[in-house]
Write a structure and sequence with these properties.
Rossmann fold, alpha/beta, 2 domains, 38% helix, globular, 10 helices, SIR2-like domain-containing protein
């Protein structure tokens, strides 16, 4: 069974202070609604739509402006030691990421090639189902879009909803699990290691796949294992996310008390060498 690393924004934040909250604040300022939009407990996709709708009505804002700002804020992000270690793992050739930037690719090479794994489809410029980047001997799947294709970037609720539709179409296709042309197949077939990923409840596309997996878990031959590495400032406490993931037949592994994020991720990767 192949090993696959699923990388979230937590890896970027080891050496970068730029967070989703800061991106949100920048988007609000670009849209000139920073005094009107109250963050509260709203999920990020909903907040994004509120920013866009308010500014569109008041200033005739074009959504492309928000996408362009996102690209400009992230295009200069640099990889760190953890990115490099992930890309140099000898037993891992596939990396799935929800990040838009190229910190993984740039940690080992200055160039890469974007390809479609489907013989019947070209490189996808919007919805990323069968498109990945090849860099040296690795494949990097940017499942929420990437900077070179701004229209592919998933920010708002509208894009999440559309992606779920595409995922459901793929899950119901006759070719599902019969090929290796999509990262979706891997989530059901391979050994998945999810790290630096918060799995917020707004990540409805990922939750829909995990849901489908557990519903069909016992019907599949050689069901796969998913490990979720949960970093917590209070690792001794049981969290809501932890109990949910366990019900989804996902193995949760937490950090040690007083173990910082970088040490936690390094300890994980040492076991995957």
């Amino acid at each position: 069974m192949n090993k696959v690393i699923f990388v979230g924004n937590g890896i970027n934040r080891i050496q970068s202070d730029y967070s989703w909250f800061q991106l949100l604040e920048d988007l609000k300022k670009e849209a000139r609604v920073d005094r009107e939009v109250i963050n509260g407990n709203k999920p990020f996709p909903i907040l994004y739509e509120e920013i866009y709708f308010r500014s569109k009505k008041k200033y005739d804002l074009k959504e492309q402006q928000l996408l362009d700002l996102t690209v400009s804020k992230m295009k200069d992000m640099k990889g760190n030691d953890i990115h490099s270690k992930i890309m140099k793992l000898s037993k891992v050739n596939t990396i799935i990421t929800t990040n838009y930037d190229y910190t993984l690719e740039s940690s080992v090479a200055s160039t890469f090639h974007t390809i479609s794994k489907s013989k019947e489809k070209s490189v996808e410029k919007i919805y990323r189902i069968t498109t990945c980047n090849e860099v040296k001997d690795k494949q990097v799947w940017h499942i929420h879009g990437e900077l070179n294709y701004p229209r592919s970037i998933v920010l708002g609720q509208n894009m999440y909803a559309r992606i779920i539709g595409r995922i459901q179409d793929y899950l119901s296709a006759e070719t599902f699990l019969q090929t290796d042309e999509s990262w979706i197949d891997m989530m059901f077939k391979d050994e998945i290691h999810m790290l630096g990923f918060g799995l917020d409840y707004s990540e409805v596309d990922i939750w829909s796949i995990l849901n489908a997996r557990v519903r069909h878990f016992n019907k599949m031959k050689g069901s796969n294992t998913i490990y979720f590495y949960l970093y917590s400032f209070t690792p001794e406490e049981i969290t809501d996310l932890e109990t949910i993931l366990e019900s989804y037949q996902i193995k949760v592994i937490k950090n040690k008390i007083d173990e910082d994020p970088k040490k936690f991720y390094e300890r994980i990767l040492e076991k995957l060498i």
